[in-house]
Please model this.
Amino acid sequence: MERFQLFDLMGELQLYGMKAAFDEIMATAVKRQHEPQRIIGDLLTAEINEKQARSIKYQLTIAKLPLAKDLDDFQFDGTPINETLVRDLAGGGFIAEQRNAVLIGGTGTGKTHLAIAIGRSCIRSGARGRFYNVVDLVNRLEAEARNARKGRLADHLTRMDFVVLDELGYLPFAQSGGQLLFHLISRLYERTSIIVTTNLAFGEWPSVFTDAKMTTALLDRLTHHCDIIETGNDSWRFKSRADDHTTTRARAVSATLTSSDAASATARTRRTRGSKLDADRGSNLQAD
Model:
């Protein structure tokens, strides 16, 4: 059978990975005199790899992650962030255990970066996820309720492995929106893992949801199985820009003065009772 005929059959069967790798595999097989079984195995492996790559690309697309951020892009030095815990979360084990994660800290301290990086790592390992800005999500829930479609988004998200709720507390929303968000989190409880980023200590959450009892119930669900990551209050983005600026200035001075110079750990650390965040909760919540 001619090569073009084989390619036509591969295309008809949607064996795109096999088709793309065919010439290279056959050339290697001829050169090294591979057995037919080895050639077939190599072609099938190429097809599987290509399908996995397409699946990951598709899942990254539907996750709606706003930026392509990875842990290798993040500078942990000089921050209070528990790098071991972050990398443990990026391994995806918290999803299998139906655990949640809350990243708490000031503006610019890297919460969203870390949440995205954890999500991307989990998706590469085969998980399905979805990213939402909290205000956008509340607006969508309210629109759903107005159009008599209440609960449909929750049904969809319970089939996800994780959901990122970004920037809780940055902008206020109506009490009705807080109630809808509460009901959504209750639906996801022990079904879909939740990653929350917020600039508010737990004791300040009633200011967002306006109902103290409802907030306590929400925190009970969210923190029942939960890892807490404190990112501090010093802006990581500002520090990174300052460091870059300092480095640039230092290089310029050096060039002037010397013109001849060519100048995943496996341990899990969890914050439980005793952290300043627990003192702020305003209720007798437990992280486990």
Observations:
- The two ends are 63 Å apart (CA to CA).
- Confidence is low (pLDDT under 50) at residues 245-288.
- The first strand starts at residue 100 and ends at 105.
